[in-house]
Amino acid sequence: MTFAAVIVAAGSGSRAGGAPKQWRMLNGRAVARWSMDAFRAAGAKPIVVVVAQDQRDEAERWLSDVGAVIVTGGATRTASVRAGLAAVGAVEAVMIHDAARPLLSPIHIQALLAALAEADGALPALLVADTLKRDGANGAETVDREGLWRAQTPQAFRLAPLLDAYARWPGDAPATDDAAVLEAAGGRVALIPGDPRLMKITHPEDFAMVEQLAGGARVTRVGQGFDAHRFGPGDGVWLCGVKIAHDLTLIGHSDADAGLHALTDAILGAIGAGDIGDHFPPSDPQWKGASSDRFLQHAVDLVAARGGRVVNVDVTLICEQPRIKPHREAMRVRLAEILALPLDRISVKATTTEGMGFTGRSEGLAAQALATIDMPA
Ligand code: MG
């Protein structure tokens, strides 16, 4: 049976954190490339990849060498699938797949093709194993899970009935999957055994799980950072993303948040990506007075783009003044927000140098930080 594939890769992927998930690196290949390679190995032709307009360059970069037909999607998943279907040409069947499910194998594809012998559509699905609850007016209520399945992709269809079903589907009315469109038109969709490996990358923690399932080894990396700024006349200091009222300020090109600068350098250090000055040169006027949380966010994004994640951070602020302790929890909460980590992965400590040195004389304030990063080996 001749068949095409439509890989839907038009999402922004923001729930998974960092760069759009379909272009993040998974054991040396972009996420979307994994599905592309599985469809190629199974004989799909053409393979149409639907992307957002602003991601065409990424798609070309990762997929053009293997002959992907790259198509611009629409505002909704339904519109994107319609755009993909318009490009498949004359084939007997089509498989529609979410790029965020990278661990597709040719075996899944062959099983779906076989199922099309007796149905207009077929999809992999897993029986719901957990007890289902609804959070009702009086607390938890148990929902009968009998006969309920979790639908995965790819979903396979005979092309003619699917095109007919989409022609009858109202405009961009939301359909969470394509089988629903065929079902609405009266087509028969068969369920075949799903596979936990076909999980969808949705939340930040899913990425590490997919990497483990993909069999890639991981390593823990450590980076350290140090920074110091001089005190000058003012009305407060920024430290670890929190403004503290004080009779001095810290002098610097940006907001002089030594805590965030040390932490940013620690993360950059762990991935061998230079230091904060390389990424945000003090000579560049656009960083004058900049809020330093953007520097930290940039370092976190670089980690994510390499398939890594920050595991924990530990910041030590070194000063005689201002008093840090009353603000420590607010700093931890702010760092937890920026890093998207639970609070127990974030440490902020403070010490003095007992009157010795530049911090002891309150000429300035210093900070040091350590970050551990979980990365593909
Ligand atoms: Mg600095």
- Strand elements, count: 19
Specify the helix fraction band. Answer: 25-40%
Global mean pLDDT: 93
Strand count, sense and barrel status of the largest sheet are:
8 strands, mixed
Which hetero ligands occur in this complex?
magnesium ion
Q: Kindly provide the radius of gyration, computed on alpha-carbon positions and rounded to a whole number of angstroms.
A: 26 Å
Strand content: 25-35%
**Can you tell me the residue ranges where pLDDT is under 50 for at least 5 consecutive residues?**
none
Backbone structural class: alpha/beta
- How many helices in DSSP terms? 12
Distance between the termini: 40 Å
Q: Sum up the overall morphology in one term.
A: elongated
Question: How are the elements arranged and paired?
Answer:
Elements: E1 3-9, E2 25-26, E3 29-30, H1 31-42, E4 47-51, H2 56-63, E5 69-72, H3 77-85, E6 93-98, H4 106-115, E7 121-127, E8 132-136, E9 139-143, E10 149-151, E11 155-158, H5 159-168, H6 178-184, E12 189-193, H7 204-213, E13 218-233, E14 236-239, E15 242-245, E16 248-251, H8 258-270, H9 276-279, H10 293-305, E17 309-318, H11 328-339, E18 346-351, H12 357-360, E19 364-376
Parallel strand pairs: 1-4, 1-6, 4-5, 7-12, 17-18
Antiparallel strand pairs: 2-3, 6-11, 7-10, 7-11, 8-9, 13-16, 13-19, 14-15, 17-19
Helix pairs in contact: 1-4, 5-6, 8-10
The chain binds magnesium ion.
Magnesium ion (MG) binds at residues 227, 229, 252, 258, 261.
